[in-house]
TrEMBL record:
Entry-linked InterPro entries: Glyas_Bleomycin-R_OHBP_Dase, Glyas_Fos-R_dOase_dom
Provenance organism: Fictibacillus barbaricus
Annotated Pfam families: Glyoxalase
Protein name: Glyoxalase/fosfomycin resistance/dioxygenase domain-containing protein
UniProt domain Glyoxalase/fosfomycin resistance/dioxygenase: residue ranges: 9-103
Length: 112
C-alpha cells in the first residue's frame, strides 16, 4: 500500500478548488464535475476533493496493486463498508480501521 491521495469531501467543488488554488495548489486531474485531484509543490501525495462521501469524512486513499485481490485477502479480517466497485481509473473499496476511520483503497487497472 502506498498513500496516493488525501481525500476531502466538499460541498462545492468549484469553490473548494478556488480555495486550495489560493493556497498554491494546482489542478492535476478531474473526473467530470464531481471529483478533482490537486498537486502541492514538493509533495507526491495529491489532495482529492469530491462532492461525495460526506458521511465518512476525510481520510487517506491508498494505492494497491489490485483492489479485488486486497479485498479477497482481507475481507474476513477487515470491516469493509464499500465492496470493490469500478470507477474511471480502476477499482475502489473502503474499509474502517480499528477506530472507525475510513480507509479507501484504489487501483489504476483502467488507466492507459
Amino acid at each position: 500500500m502506498k498513500l496516493a491521495f488525501l481525500f476531502h469531501p466538499v460541498k462545492d467543488l468549484q469553490e473548494s478548488q478556488r480555495y486550495y488554488e489560493g493556497l498554491g495548489m494546482t489542478e492535476a486531474w478531474r473526473e467530470g464535475n464531481q471529483v478533482l485531484g490537486m498537486t502541492m509543490k514538493d509533495c507526491e501525495v495529491q489532495l482529492m476533493i469530491e462532492e461525495d462521501e460526506h458521511e465518512l469524512g476525510p481520510g487517506g486513499v491508498f494505492l494497491v496493486d489490485s483492489v479485488d485481490d486486497f479485498y479477497d485477502e482481507h475481507e474476513s479480517k477487515l470491516d469493509f463498508i464499500k465492496s470493490p466497485c469500478t470507477i474511471p481509473p480502476g477499482r475502489y473499496a473502503i474499509y474502517r480501521d480499528g477506530t472507525g476511520n475510513p480507509i479507501r483503497i484504489i487501483d489504476f487497472s483502467n488507466k492507459d
